[in-house]
Specification:
globular, six-stranded parallel sheet, alpha/beta, about 500 residues, 8 strands
């Protein structure tokens, strides 16, 4: 039996285990709306959750810790892997409860993010994490936000217990292809990851049906509506954009085949959501992971292209109705022949482009096959994915602001869902012009190249890819020139040593 060491102080454990948790970026507190209750401590209402972000975009609003950094696994990319010689520590369930409640009372945090290394086995570790949540919710009466990171390979019973106690539950996919998973995380498998994911999906769908909602998340329903409108016959409503069905041509890799196979084997239909046998069962009305489930993929530890990564994300969204897929730029911390060298820069810009593309999949009706292909497997660094798509389909532009459908406007660079709704509302009372678009929040710096108002563009703009690309990236032109043509001249300083010999005038 695994024994929890008691020779470290609580402060020292907190120092070790909070530092060990910083590499997990799947930390967000949106999506849950449970208000404070009399006799309970804290709340998870959306308005009561404070969000702070580090310089690299990672959320720091929750108490983010590991239960332990002891681990029987030896994942090559992980700081806490078994073969690393690092200082180890383990929290007891009551220590985590004490930290959470005391930090909350001092207004340091608004909730808890709890992950863990694997002690003895996935089930043993998951049981300890569930014990912590039970204590927090019952004995300590903590009603705030909790995000728990489930352990791959844990039993469905323990996953179900965690889902009934936490607001969000997630399991890390870690790597986008099965080949990389076998090389860099030999103790994990696609099945051990997808099986608990499927159990979470089933629990969420059952609860939503029991309370009279659609089994899928609202985001999935909206995205399906967009996709059906755009791709049902391969064309747009206005007959301009989408001359062919560009979602075709994505060839499922081994990881996608494995995901689909695992989903089907766990009674979750690929491309849909499992429906429970008795949706009227009152026991299903207990909230189950109300903020949904998410996962994380590491970017840059292995050689997959953006096309591989986004194809895997699309499969997870479609088959398991995930709330979010997080992308974590790989930080070189381990010296291993299977990993990039320690001098490799962290691919933060690539991570940023993947997040932009992810929003296009979830909220704009795009498919991976439109943004990338086997011939063009990676995103452009200089422009965002939406602009890149528009530049490759200039034959579909410009679009008329006062006539175009919602599904057409949503794809114009510089126009988002909120701006489209404002445009559609304003059009009922009169024609929209460029000045009005600016007040509505449209980013005209990008949108001006792709739209007209009453048949006129904002200026004399030729619809040419090279011209538009140069204008879109013009803001970075001086920076790019300075990088390519370094100038060592600097303003003179009285304290600089100019190498003048003594006595020189």
């Amino acid at each position: 039996m695994y024994e929890i060491s008691q020779d470290l102080s609580l402060d020292k454990k907190l120092e070790i285990l909070s530092d060990a948790a910083k590499y997990d970026v799947a930390c967000t507190s949106s999506g849950s709306d449970r208000r404070g209750q009399k006799g309970m401590l804290g709340n998870s209402c959306a308005a009561g959750i404070c969000h702070s972000f580090a310089a690299d975009g990672r959320c720091i609003s929750l108490l983010k810790i590991l239960m332990t950094n002891h681990c029987v696994y030896d994942c090559k990319y992980c700081k806490n892997r078994r073969s690393n010689d690092i200082e180890r520590a383990t929290f007891t369930p009551r220590e985590i409860c004490t930290l959470t409640t005391e930090f909350y009372k001092r207004n340091y945090i608004e909730g808890l993010f709890l992950s863990s290394g694997v002690i003895e086995s996935p089930d043993y570790t998951m049981e300890k994490m569930c014990e912590t949540l039970r204590l927090l919710r019952t004995e300590y009466r903590f009603n705030g936000y909790i995000h728990i990171k489930a352990i791959p390979g844990a039993s469905s019973e323990l996953i179900n217990s965690a889902g009934l106690l936490a607001d969000r539950i997630s399991i890390n996919m870690e790597l986008p292809t099965e080949e990389s998973l076998s090389v860099l995380a030999p103790n994990k498998s696609v099945k051990s990851i997808i099986t608990p994911m499927s159990a979470i999906t089933e629990g969420i769908a059952s609860h939503r049906l029991a309370i009279g909602k659609d089994a899928r998340m609202e985001r999935a329903v909206i995205n399906d509506r967009l996709s059906d409108t755009i791709f049902s016959d391969g064309r747009r409503q206005n007959g301009r954009i989408g001359a062919d069905n560009r979602t075709e041509g994505i060839k499922d890799g081994k990881i996608i085949e494995s995901i689909n196979s695992a989903i089907l084997s766990n009674n979750v239909k690929s491309g849909g959501i499992f429906l429970p046998a008795d949706p009227k069962d009152t026991s299903l009305k207990r909230p189950f992971a109300p903020a949904g489930q998410s996962t994380q993929m590491i970017i840059g530890a292995s050689g997959e292209s953006d096309f591989d990564i986004m194809s895997t994300a699309q499969t997870l969204y479609k088959g398991l109705d995930l709330k979010r897929v997080f992308y974590s730029a790989y930080i070189p911390i381990n010296d291993d022949s299977a990993l990039p060298s320690l001098e490799t820069p962290v691919p933060l810009l690539r991570e940023h482009r993947l997040y932009q593309a992810d929003f296009l999949l979830r909220y704009y009706g795009f498919k991976v096959g439109e943004l990338l292909s086997e011939e063009k497997p990676n995103f452009e660094v200089g422009v965002d994915p939406k602009c890149d798509w528009a530049l490759r389909h200039l034959e579909d532009f410009p679009v008329e602001i006062n006539k175009a459908s919602y599904d057409t406007l949503i794809r114009v660079p510089g126009i988002g869902p909120t701006s489209v709704k404002r445009i559609m509302s304003a059009r009922r009372y009169g024609h929209v012009n460029f000045a009005m678009l600016k007040k509505m929040g449209v980013v005209l710096k990008r949108a001006q190249f792709f739209i007209t108002c009453d048949g006129r563009m904002m200026g004399n703009i030729p619809i040419e890819e090279k011209f538009i690309l140069n204008r879109l990236t013009d803001v970075d032109r001086k920076t790019a020139y300075d990088i390519q043509n370094p100038d060592n001249s600097v303003q003179m300083n009285l304290f600089n040593d100019f190498g003048l010999s003594a006595g020189t005038a």
